Amino acid sequence: MRTLLLGRLAGVGWFIGALMAATLALGLVAIETSIQTQNYHQGLLDASSHNATFDYSRGQIEIERLARTIEGFEAGRTSRERLETAFAIVRTRVDTIPIVITGRPFRDAVAAREELAAACEDIEAVLPFIGRPEVARRMVGRLDDLASTFSRLSTLSNAVQGDLVAGWRERLADALADLGLTLRLLCGIGFVLLVVLFWQKLSFRRQAMTDPLTGLPNRASFREWSRRTAGAKEIAVAVVDVDLFKEVNDSCGHQHGDRLLCDLGTIFRAVTGRFGEVARIGGDEFALLFTGAGAQQHAERACAEAVRRLGAHDTRCCDERRSTLSIGIASVVNGDRSVESMLIDADSAMYSAKNSGGGRIVIASDEFRNDLEQRRLLQRDMASAVTRGEFETVFQPIVEVGSLRAHGFETLLRWDHPDLGRLSPDFFIPLAEETGAIVEIGRFVLDRALSIAASWPDPLTVSVNVSAVQLGDKAFVAHVRQSLLRHDVAPHRLILEITETVLIRNANAKTVLDELRALGVGIALDDFGTGYASMGYLRQYRFDKIKIDKSFVSTMVDEGKSAAIVRAICGLARDISATVVAEGIETEELLSLVGAAGCELGQGYLFARPMSALQTTLFIERQGWGSADAAPRMTIAAMA
Amino acid sequence: MAITRRTFLRACALPVLAGPVLAGVVAPARASTSLDDPERPVLAVSRNGERLAALSRSDLAAMPQTRLFTQTPWNNEPVEYEGPSVGVFLSRFSGEEEESLRLLALNDYLVTAKAGMLIEAGAILAVKENGAFMPTSSKGPVFVMFPFDAEPRLQSQRYYSRAVWQLVAIELT
Question: Does the distance separating the beta carbons of A85 and B106 come in below 8 Å?
């Protein structure tokens, strides 16, 4: 379709080129013709600027008058003075007779002038005796002949000059006709050019508003619609994102990805029908817009239908995984919000759907928006929470299952929000990861944990959780090294706890872990058993500790399967020289079970809840860590 | 009122042509020179039939002169013409631009022209051609001349027809 459109445009380009060339050529012709017209006009002016015929006629009259004057003089009726005046008039004619008509010599006129000049000379010669009858008669006869010559000359020149003028006039008329034709052609071509350019502009505009792959309107179109919805009371916007689209592209090829998008375009077009419009607003993102009564219902129905049709549609590719959609819907019933802000909400809802595993429709209800707003406010507050001292570290002991002696402490973070009170890290750490504030918070925790652990007896370890964002921070390893040096804590006492997710989300995790290991810092794999629990990771990386998630541990009592898994993990850990920590030990029964399963270390409320730094110090003292030798076995009662 | 050859003769030429009848007019010794005497009144000026002046070539030559160097349809080579401009000439008779002039030549050639048109075109009443008074036998005594070369727009019948040679009378109306 794209090539077809381009081809059409290229064709138009050629056509426009031809039109422009024709315009240019015609323009040149018009200029040439107008120059010709000017020349012909000038020729016509020249031909008619001086009327020679008139001069010849005047000459004829003057010659005849001289003849009559001579007759009068000879008869004594006229004075010599008058004779001389009449002669002077004819003499002047010799000088003024035109012998050239529009630049060309007029032969008859030249001959007539010579005849006139000769006659004047003869008359001049005989002027003193002109009164004599025979002289007068001879001169009168000669002048009468001359008058006839001039008479003929005038009629001749009348025709010649007429021809000349007519010639110029014809040429001028032709040139003007040519000019008129050229101008009409120019106007015609100009009009066609305008039409084509206008059409081309429309087509470019259409192209700019259309997604070339699916043929759907694009984001620019969607923005345009947003303006059109002004005034509508009920509006619903749905944002649809294809789950794991990148993976589809990567594993099945872009062709398959493109086909999936095209199929989706067809599906969306079908399900929106006449109630709404659909646009492709991003790589794998579509937006649906519904206006009018029941917009939200239409949106929900259309989205549900799209999901159903996609399910029925064979979209599977090589890895047999079905494509699913994450959909966010935002709506308004009183028209008091702009489509842009609804789009943002729908987008957030879509992300929320995606974050909870995808393949879901989330409606950006008021509750959702409040929640979102709350999260944004918290993220804002978090930026300054470290400097305001709202964060607090607490420590939970990790105990040797066999001896019940403290082995170390896991550092946990609490946030005392001025308005919301104490907040759990499960709640605010994801928010901190979103904004990147986790890096600063993580440094604070590490710093605090090491400063406190520095005062503990030497063998006790301190565990600190590290998030994916922190691990991606380039300065992370350097900061760990500096913190260890600053607080003078032996590197082997620091255990960094990371989850599988951290490894998945960091391409260079191995490098960072190797560097940390080179420092002497211990690495623990946290929450093992909740994610992929991939054996691959255990082989790929070296872990000092494996922490079995409490969800496994807590079900050990009821489900034999869990116990078997825990046992298996413990066996596996022994093989790779890692120590297993069982989390969530809350009862004596569990303690004995994990002990029986082979776990060496345990953590849980049975031993202690997370404690402040001071309480931790007291806890350590109660355990008798005053000297390394006198380390009495503590009793459960003492710890509780 | 039309100027005819007769009125002209009555107004100006007749007394001259009639010989030494009028005092102050020198009778020519020879007929051939009598017409070309620079002192002889040759140009009659009248307004509505009332005679205002009869000017000789010397009178005209005594006015502030304008020189033109131009080709004309009646010369093959550029020629220098000299004489008072029409503007200067008419100022003697407190003429207005809107005034109509009737120019009469010795050969009964008569044309009318607006004073403004002649003045605007830079017309002069040439009495000299290449430095010498023009004889009556060659376009004299007075030749209305325009700067044709300097202004090509003047090269048209409109102005050629006003280039009157052998001018002998100007009537202002």
Answer: yes
Q: Is A589 in contact with A418 (CB distance < 8 Å)?
A: no
Collapsed DSSP state (helix, strand, coil) of residue A72: helix
Nearest to B165 among A51, A82, A96 (CB): A96
* Whole-complex ipTM: 0.74
Is B146's pLDDT higher than 90? Answer: yes
The span from the CA of A264 to the CA of A307, in Å, is 10
Q: For residue A268, which of A340, A322, A211, A332 has the smallest C-alpha distance?
A: A211
For the segment A595-610, what is each residue's pLDDT rounded down to a tens digit? 888 889 999 988 888 9
Q: What is the mean pLDDT of chain A?
A: 85
Please give the residue that has the higher pLDDT: either A620 or A232: A620
Q: What is the mean pLDDT of residues A298-316?
A: 82
Whole-number Å distance between alpha carbons of B101 and B117: 10
The closest of A157, A153, A139 to A60, measured between CA atoms, is A153
A169-183 confidence digits (pLDDT tens): 899 999 999 999 999
Confidence band of A486 (pLDDT split at 50, 70, 90) = very high
Q: Residue B17 and residue A98: Cβ atoms within 8 Å? A: no
At B143 the three-state DSSP class reads strand
| Among candidate residues A43, A64, A60, the one with its CA nearest the CA of residue A52 | A60
Q: List, in order, residues 6 or more apart from A209 with CB less than 8 Å away.
A: A217, A218, A220, A221, A224
Measured CA to CA, the distance from residue B86 to residue B109 in angstroms comes to 19
Pairwise CA distance, residues A310 & A322, whole Å? 9
pLDDT attached to residue A554: 80
- Its pTM stands at 0.48
A561, A569 in Cβ contact below 8 A? Answer: no
* Residue bearing tokens 């075109």: B121
Q: Which amino acid does the sequence have at B37?
A: D
Tokens of A441: 């918070």
* Partner B contacted by A96 (CB < 8 A): yes
Interface-testing mutation among A85, A94, A110, A130, with chain B (most B C-beta atoms within 10 A): A85
Q: Which amino acid is at A395?
A: F
Q: What is the mean pLDDT of residues A28-53?
A: 85
Q: How many residues does chain B have?
A: 173
- Indicate if the pLDDT at residue A449 is higher than 90: yes
pLDDT digit string (tens) for A549-578? 888 888 877 777 778 888 888 888 888 888
Q: Which residue has the tokens 């494996």?
A: A546
Asked if pLDDT for residue A467 goes beyond 80, the answer is: yes
For chain B, positions 87-126, list CB contacts with chain A under 8 A: 106-107, 109
Q: What is the pLDDT of residue A5?
A: 52
Q: Work out the widest C-alpha separation in chain A, in whole angstroms.
A: 182
The answer, yes or no, to whether residue A640 has pLDDT greater than 50, is no
Homologous superfamily of the A391-639 domain (CATH): EAL domain (3.20.20.450)
Best of A89, A121, A129 to disrupt the B interface (most B CBs within 10 Å) is A89
Do residues A433 and A450 touch, judged by C-beta distance below 8 A?
no
Higher per-residue confidence, B97 vs A159: A159
Topology of the domain covering A222-364: Alpha-Beta Plaits (3.30.70)
- How confident is the model over A48-76, as a mean pLDDT? 88
8 Å CB contact between A327 and A353? yes
Q: How many CB atoms lie within 10 A of CB A438?
A: 23
**Beta-ladder partners of B112:** B102
Amino acid at A186: L
Is the torsion defined by CA of A61, A67, A68, A73 positive or negative?
positive
Six-digit token string for A576: 């790779």
Distant-in-sequence, close-in-space partners of A68: CB < 8 Å, separation ≥ 6 = none
The domains located in chain B, with CATH, are 5-172 (3.90.420.10)
User: Which pLDDT value is given to residue B124?
Assistant: 93
